[in-house]
Amino acid sequence: MINHLVKIISVDGYYSEEQAKSLTAAIFNLTYIESDLGKQIENFNLVPPDANKQFSEILNTTIEVDEESGVFRLPANFIHFEEFDDLNEWVFAVALQKSTFNVFEHLSGVQNAVQGYKNINYRNLFEWDHRINYLLEPGDGILFRPWLFHSFDQGLVQIFRLKEKDDN
After folding, report:
1. Most buried among 5, 101, 131, 151, using CB within 10 Å?
2. Roughly how many angstroms between the first and final C-alpha of the chain, as a whole number?
3. Rounded Cα gap, residues 39 and 124, in angstroms
4. Are 133 and 77 in contact (CB under 8 A)?
5. Distance between CA 112 and CA 128 in Å, rounded?
6. Does the reported pTM lie above 0.85?
7. Measured between alpha carbons, how far is 41 from 70 in angstroms, rounded to an integer?
8. Tell me: the pLDDT tens digits for 88-111?
């Protein structure tokens, strides 16, 4: 198990730039529907057959990729967190177009959704402290804990849901 203090890991070149552009060209003009976190292609996902092995090697622990992973999202540009059930979960977002991943903390002192998320205005940027950002080129990815308050500025991303498995 990875220490819960590890919140973000960047991954360069998960896809080559050419692969990212090819995926974008293949799916960009499909029909996207509104979801809670942006626009997604309904009932459409792509998970490589060796995804469990890939992510287990990246994180150096046993990983199980959620079968509903691999969704393509045009993210809504607002601060949010992803759903989660326990502290052993990760989200992997790979940029298919240039994007910026931003991490925020609420000015009330709440740093993430584990500490609290009710009564927070996610749309009022004056209530947030912008902590860090990562510029993602096409093909680059970011592993992050789903409870982090975050946003993506732009661009198509592919989202994977991961869970660390107990090796015992």
Report:
1. 101
2. 10
3. 21
4. no
5. 12
6. yes
7. 11
8. 999 999 999 999 999 999 999 999
